[in-house]
Write a structure and sequence with these properties.
With about 375 residues, the protein is an alpha/beta fold. The protein has two domains: about 5-280, Rossmann fold (3-Layer(aba) Sandwich); about 310-365, no CATH class. It is about 25% helix and about 25% strand. It is built from eight helices and 17 strands. The chain has helices spanning about 30-40, 40-50, 85-95, 115-125, 155-165, 190-205, 265-280, 315-320, and strands at about 5, 20-25, 50-55, 100-110, 130-135, 175-180, 210, 225-230, 235-240, 250, 260, 310-315, 325, 335-340, 345, 350-360, 360-365. The strands form four sheets. Strands 1-3-2-4-5-6-9-8-7 form a nine-stranded mixed sheet, sandwiched between helices. Strands 12-16-17 form a three-stranded antiparallel sheet. Helix 4 links the parallel strand 4 and strand 5 (about 130-135). The radius of gyration is 21 Å and the shape is globular.
Length: about 375
């Protein structure tokens, strides 16, 4: 069996058709209790109305309590070696009506062997996991003796990941990935982290690269750099190098603990924001309808909005304020989408975009107005 610590926030879900579920895996030597006490998940779970599940590796794990991510002997059709336990956990919690989990918002993350197992699960079951958060995790197909130096290639790891998925490769079309690691990690070779980003970006078809600053992120140490891999619709893979971070879970707050750093970005906040902002599986056009206040006076007939093909150039924030766009996430990494068409407008409040009206309730992106 596998023991699990579950946190269910009192706050309501903030996106999609129910609550998101984050399964977060400890690293070697660690326990789920360490993440529960010092991993800094509670505040983020409360903010997003997200359920967080912290499992312990079954039967004490392997090799110092590690998750069994090793080698290429993993199967989506006959899962075993912890893969079956984690799949069952995701399915069981998603089916528990009282939790109200949206199956389009099931995520998994983890440190070290938990990061390696996170990548394994994302490759095995891309249709189940909408996002994978890999923290200093070795690449799929490697062994316990290969953590100190990169022992695989992008081509080999890509082949392994695709083979793991079996008949479920269609799930890669909408999966997201976030990779984070520290400049001072002397346990798992940092080359694995950049390789993980390249492997998943290649599988996703996210060939457009850009860089971003960590300065606006939550946390106590926002030194480092970020790389974003995008496709034609928007961001798919984020890779963050946090300067000064060692081989630790980047809690970014609190007192730290066993392989947990308080001197880092707030990774729970970042990875959740990234997944919520860019999830391709939830309905972005759904807008809650406010309940009208009772009134004794007659309701006037609304004046139809003219459909005149009008075009407006403004900042993304101004478009959203005027009801022409929607956005999710935290500035400056929040993607914007045109109302109705959901055409991608780029990231950040200050980005300037031209939108042309298609109908009374739909706008689309154009190169320029006029």
């Amino acid at each position: 069996g596998m023991s699990v610590r579950l946190y269910t926030p009192a706050t309501a879900a903030t996106a999609g058709a129910g609550r998101a579920l984050m399964i977060s895996l400890h690293g070697c030597v660690q326990k789920a209790a360490d993440l529960q006490q010092n991993g800094n998940w509670t505040a983020t779970a409360d903010r997003y109305g997200m359920v967080v599940a912290l499992p312990d590796a079954p039967n004490g794990g392997v090799v110092l309590g590690c998750w069994d991510y090793y080698d290429t002997n993993h199967s989506s059709s006959a899962p075993a070696r912890h893969d079956d336990n984690l799949l069952s956990l995701a399915q069981t919690l998603s089916a528990r009506a009282a939790l109200g989990i949206d199956p389009a918002q099931v995520y998994i993350s983890g440190l070290s062997s938990g990061g390696g197992e996170t990548m394994v699960m994302g490759c095995l079951f891309p249709q189940v996991f909408a996002g994978v958060g890999i923290n200093a995790g070795p690449t799929v197909g490697t062994t316990s003796s290969q953590i100190g130096s990169v022992a695989t290639t992008q081509a080999q790891a890509t082949q392994t990941c695709r083979a793991f998925a079996g008949t479920g490769t269609a799930g890669f079309a909408t999966q997201l990935a976030s990779i984070v690691y520290g400049s001072n990690d002397t346990t798992v070779a940092p080359g694995y982290d950049t390789l993980n980003g390249q492997v998943l970006a290649g599988i996703y078809g996210a060939s457009q690269t850009s860089t971003f600053s960590l300065a606006g992120l939550a946390g106590t140490n926002t030194q480092g750099s970020g790389t974003l891999f995008s496709d034609g619709t928007g961001p798919r893979v984020s890779v963050i190098q946090n300067t000064g971070l060692g081989h630790n879970w980047p809690a970014g707050a609190g007192s730290g603990g066993t392989y947990i750093s308080a001197n880092s970005i707030d990774y729970p906040a970042y990875v959740t924001s990234f997944f919520f902002a860019n999830n391709r599986r939830i309905d972005r056009s759904a807008t809650p309808t406010p309940t009208p206040s009772p009134t004794g006076s007659a309701t006037p007939t609304p004046t139809p909005t003219p459909i005149d093909g009008s075009c407006v150039t403004a900042t993304n924030a101004a478009h959203k304020a005027a009801g022409r766009a929607t956005s999710y996430g935290v500035n400056p990494y929040n993607p914007y989408y045109a109302l109705g068409s959901l055409a991608y407008m780029g990231q950040g409040d200050a980005t300037t975009t031209s939108l042309q009206r298609q109908s009374a309730t739909s706008w689309t992106v154009v190169a320029t107005c006029g």
